[in-house]
Structure formats: structure tokens, C-alpha cells
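User: C-alpha cells in, sequence out, please.
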């Protein structure tokens, strides 16, 4: 019973191989991402495909998987906007994910991006290596006393909110389902508009859905404070990049930190250092001194990788044994 991995990276293979010592599953790794171009290469009788954020499981791809006899799509991530769940459901393919793998890893990366931007440590690092100890251009701002607006207070948003409280920030939150424990801890839930109007820092922690695509756009940015800092470790499609670029030009956005990008599947997780990048939007973004881009690495800690491997392998083992894994992991 084989599981075929797509988009497999060396650090993932190491972690999965180590944890597979307890599961003894047949695993085959492919570097390429899953999409219409490669799906026909899946061998008949493959039990599961294991995919990551930028594999594209369109209806067409899932139809081919079903025809090959694939029984399980195992997402080794939390977000699932890249899988057409209705098609999987219709064709009887089970879909599972890793609902939580160290939410603190992602929250801490969001904070790392924020601290890099507000204290310009990325510039300082390069500067002192050239023996330039001048402080000109390194002026930052305190987090203490600022208002941080958290959009989406699930596992990651909650962890982020608590860290921001530790900095002495006033923390506002917007979520369709407010969290009672956060309220008791002093986090104030507001409407989305109020959150925009009052926050010095906005951090996105909600999933990407058809309803909230381009949640941050020209119209919503107009409601935000002038000089706002925006951090997005959630999904690129939550921000209209063109509108964000315009807002950076006017100073409406003073700092932007993104670990995710709406066209990231063509770029992220690949070494393109020798390539010509045709995507003018990301090139424009990276040209701003007050924009920090990381390539979807917020999850990348040893602890999170261990959790991803163990949860994924145990879900596949449960399906193979004719059982259901923990309901929180099941999408279909
Ligand atoms: P979660 O499911 O625990 O929480 C999501 C929260 O967002 C829920 O409370 C939900 O009610 C809320 N929400 C849904 N739609 C909303 C909307 N339109 N406006 C405001 N709130 C809304 O998810 P978790 O684990 O906190 O992850 C959040 C997102 O982070 C994931 O969907 C994924 O896109 C992203 N992520 C990014 C990673 C990275 O490495 N950059 C790694 C893991 C997750």
C-alpha cells in the first residue's frame, strides 16, 4: 500500500523517514508538485497521495486520482484551499489534513517578521558586516502601547494575540466566532471596520475562503490607519497585491511582512536564484525597503515537522485499517 508524496523537500523526507520507523509504510517521494501535468504518472493502486500547500488538486486532477484507485488525499498542512473537496466527496476519496502543528511556530514567525520590520534588523545585519556602524535609517518604533489587530483567532491567531499582549500591546480581534478564553484574557473583539480603523498592526490568521479573497484591498485599506503595518502568514489570496503596492507607495502601509503570496506556487519552495522571474508584482514588492518577504517558512520548525509527519502517517494508517482518524483531521 503505497503513499506517493508530491513537492517533497529534503527536510520533510528526513522527518517522515524518521517517524515512519514506527509506521513502516511504503513511501515514494516526488519533488514535483501535483497538478494536471503530472497526475497521469500516479501508478494504479497507489493508496494515498500526500500533498502540500501548492499542490493543485483541481476537479480534473482528482478525477484522474480516483480513476487510478487512489483512496486518500493526505494534506501535510492545515490550509486546504488548494483541494476541490466536493469532487473528492463525490468520488469517494477521503481527504485529511494536519489541523494543528505547532501554531506557535507560525505565530512566532509572524512576530519575527514584525520585529524585523519595526527594528530593521535585516538592514542592521548587512550593515555591520560591511563595518558600517551608522544608525542612520534604522529608526524603529516600540510595540509597547500599540494596538495590534488580529484577523482570525483560531489556533495561530490566539497564539499571536497572546504574544502581542506580552509586548504590552492592546489587542483587538475580528473573527466570525469569537474565542471566550481570549476575551477573558483581555482581547477585545470588534467589527472588521473598527479593527481596521484602530490597529497600528494588522496580522492575518484566517483561512482563505471564496468569501474573504482579497480581504485586504483598496477599499479596506482606505479604512485602515495611515502607516499601518500588515503581516500575512496565512494565505496570499487574502491580500490584493496590486492594491497593497499602491498603498505602500502612498505610505498608507508603512511596513508589509508576507510569508505567503497569491502567486506563490510558481516561486516558493524553489531555488530561482539563477532564473529570470517574470512575476512583476513580487519583484515590485521586493524592491520596497519596508517589505519583508519570506517563502512560506512560518511552519518550518523541528517541532512542527515532527507533528506533521506523525499526524499524517497515523491518519493514513487509520484509513488503511478501515478506520477514521481524529475527526478534526478529516475534511472528507
Ligand atoms: P484555525 O482553523 O484554528 O483558525 C482560523 C480562524 O479563522 C477561525 O477561528 C475562524 O473562525 C476564523 N475565520 C474564518 N474565516 C474568517 C474571516 N473571513 N474573517 C475572520 N476570521 C475568520 O486555523 P489556524 O490553524 O489558526 O490557521 C490559520 C491559517 O494559517 C490557515 O488557514 C493557513 O492558511 C495558515 N497557515 C500558514 C502556515 C505557514 O507556514 N505560513 C502554516 C499553517 C497555517
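Assistant: Sequence out:
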Amino acid at each position: 500500500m503505497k503513499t506517493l508524496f508530491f513537492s517533497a523537500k529534503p527536510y520533510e523526507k528526513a522527518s517522515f523517514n524518521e517517524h515512519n520507523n514506527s509506521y513502516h509504510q511504503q513511501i515514494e517521494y516526488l519533488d514535483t508538485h501535483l497538478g494536471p501535468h503530472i497526475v497521469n504518472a500516479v501508478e494504479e493502486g497507489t493508496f494515498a497521495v500526500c500533498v502540500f500547500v501548492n499542490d493543485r488538486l483541481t476537479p480534473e486532477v482528482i478525477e484522474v486520482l480516483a480513476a487510478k484507485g487512489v483512496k486518500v488525499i493526505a494534506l501535510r498542512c492545515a490550509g486546504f484551499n488548494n483541494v476541490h473537496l466536493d469532487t473528492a466527496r463525490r468520488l469517494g476519496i477521503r481527504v485529511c489534513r494536519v489541523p494543528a502543528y505547532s501554531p506557535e511556530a507560525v505565530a512566532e514567525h509572524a512576530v519575527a517578521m514584525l520585529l524585523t520590520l519595526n527594528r530593521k534588523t535585516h538592514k542592521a545585519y548587512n550593515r555591520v558586516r560591511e563595518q558600517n556602524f551608522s544608525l542612520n535609517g534604522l529608526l524603529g518604533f516600540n510595540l509597547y502601547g500599540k494596538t495590534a489587530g488580529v484577523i482570525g483567532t483560531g489556533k495561530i491567531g490566539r497564539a499571536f494575540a497572546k504574544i502581542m499582549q506580552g509586548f504590552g500591546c492592546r489587542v483587538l480581534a475580528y473573527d466570525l466566532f469569537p474565542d471566550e478564553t481570549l476575551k477573558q484574557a483581555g482581547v477585545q473583539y470588534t467589527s472588521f471596520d473598527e479593527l481596521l480603523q484602530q490597529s497600528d498592526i494588522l496580522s492575518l490568521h484566517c483561512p482563505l475562503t471564496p468569501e474573504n479573497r482579497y480581504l485586504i484591498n483598496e477599499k479596506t485599506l482606505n479604512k485602515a490607519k495611515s502607516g499601518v503595518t500588515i503581516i500575512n502568514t496565512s494565505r496570499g489570496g487574502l491580500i490584493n497585491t496590486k492594491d497593497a503596492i499602491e498603498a505602500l507607495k502612498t505610505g498608507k502601509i508603512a511596513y508589509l511582512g508576507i510569508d505567503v503570496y497569491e502567486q506563490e506556487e510558481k516561486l516558493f519552495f524553489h531555488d530561482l536564484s539563477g532564473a529570470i522571474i517574470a512575476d512583476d508584482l513580487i519583484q515590485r514588492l521586493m524592491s520596497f525597503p519596508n517589505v519583508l518577504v519570506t517563502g512560506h517558512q512560518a511552519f518550518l520548525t523541528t517541532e512542527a515537522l515532527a507533528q506533521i509527519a506523525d499526524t499524517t502517517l497515523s491518519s493514513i494508517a487509520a484509513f488503511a485499517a478501515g478506520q477514521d482518524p481524529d475527526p478534526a483531521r478529516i475534511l472528507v
